[in-house]
Amino acid sequence: MSYEGWILLTASLVGLSCGLIGVFLILRRMAMMADAISHTVLLGIVTAYLITHELSGVYMLIGAIVAGLLTAVLVQWLHTLGVQQDASIGVVFTTLFAIGVILIATKAGNVHLDVQHALMGEITFVPWNTIDLPLIGEIPQATFILLFVLAVVLIAILAFYKEWKITTFDAALAASLGIPVVFLHYVFMTLVSVTTVASFDAVGAIMVVAMLITPAASAYLWTDRLSIMLILSAGIGVVSAISGYYIATWLDTSISGSMAFATGVMFLISFIGSPKHGIVSRFIRPYTIASTQD
């Protein structure tokens, strides 16, 4: 595959995995948790490096999972103590992210971990860091990790689709049916953490947040069916990734930033043109109703 092809494939995998996970974040009204975890995984990554002195994907994933779960636990703990959830998220993620930044500046300044890289990523370098797989040959490490994470996300969603659906829309009903709501919540937070860190090194925190929230929010405007919403969100993520790359090539600017911008454009199109919730439909609906009554 060409250099450009690997970049597009990697970005598309980010769009797919983040788009699928993002639907449940939006429906559970936990969009800000995506922002929180996408920043606090930095602490997990740098801590894993300081312990192992390696930047391999396995150690990064472990560190990110721990940081993501720590974020979820601390947010839930503060919320149970009476702190509003949005305030809990703000306090936890800014504190943990700040600790990660301080550790990078003081302990990991001699490696490629830096704040700019953490925020914007460096997807242009992805095709150069390869691993050799049997029967497949050389493949970028970030692409392989994203393929693995996408498979895990798909298996988790398909295997427990009914459980995710019930716990998302009515947690009280799910608990009364004997579904382990708290356990599934932390499993979901683990999936968010794994998806985030898999995307983190390639595209940075900004695009991770954009891909987790915006495609799902766009899909939410088009349909009320969960299955269709999942497909639409994943598709919008892929379209945003590909179109963002060509926008960046045209303007000679940041690829990750352009992909995040493309998700905003897709949301704007959905916000205006959605047949049910779009601005245009809201404007013409009263006139349509009036004409049918006449």
TrEMBL record:
BP term (GO), one: response to zinc ion
Record keywords: Cell membrane, Membrane, Transmembrane, Transmembrane helix, Transport
Gene3D superfamilies membership: ABC transporter involved in vitamin B12 uptake, BtuC (1.10.3470.10)
Bilayer disposition of the protein: Multi-pass membrane protein
InterPro entries: ABC_BtuC-like, ABC_TroCD
TM annotation in the entry: 6-27, 34-51, 57-75, 87-105, 142-161, 173-196, 202-222, 229-248, 254-273
Subcellular location: Cell membrane
CDD domains: TM_ABC_iron-siderophores_like
Protein origin, superkingdom: Bacteria
GO CC terms of this entry: ATP-binding cassette (ABC) transporter complex
Family, per entry: Belongs to the ABC-3 integral membrane protein family.
Protein name (database record): Iron ABC transporter
